[in-house]
Amino acid sequence: MLSERRLKVLRAIVQDYVGTEEPVGSKALTERHNLGVSPATVRNDMAALEDEGFIAQPHTSAGRIPTDKGYRLFVDKLAGVKPMTAPERRAIQNFLEGAVDLDDVVARTVRLLAQLTRQVAVVQYPSLTRSTVRHVELLSLAPARLMLVLITDTGRVEQRMVDCPAPFGEASLADLRARLNSRVAGRRFADVPGLVEDLPEAFEAEDRGTVSTVLSTLLETLVEENEERLMIGGTANLTRFGHDFPLTIRPVLEALEEQVVLLKLLGEAKDPGVTVRIGHENAHEGLNSTSVVSVGYGSGGEAVAKLGVVGPTRMDYPGTMGAVRAVARYVGQILAES
Amino acid sequence: MLSERRLKVLRAIVQDYVGTEEPVGSKALTERHNLGVSPATVRNDMAALEDEGFIAQPHTSAGRIPTDKGYRLFVDKLAGVKPMTAPERRAIQNFLEGAVDLDDVVARTVRLLAQLTRQVAVVQYPSLTRSTVRHVELLSLAPARLMLVLITDTGRVEQRMVDCPAPFGEASLADLRARLNSRVAGRRFADVPGLVEDLPEAFEAEDRGTVSTVLSTLLETLVEENEERLMIGGTANLTRFGHDFPLTIRPVLEALEEQVVLLKLLGEAKDPGVTVRIGHENAHEGLNSTSVVSVGYGSGGEAVAKLGVVGPTRMDYPGTMGAVRAVARYVGQILAES
DNA sequence: TCTGGCACTCGCGCGCCGTGAGTGCCAGGA
DNA sequence: TCCTGGCACTCACGGCGCGCGAGTGCCAGA
Question: How big, in percent rounded to 5, are the helix, strand and coil portions of chain B?
Answer without folding.
Answer: 55, 20, 30
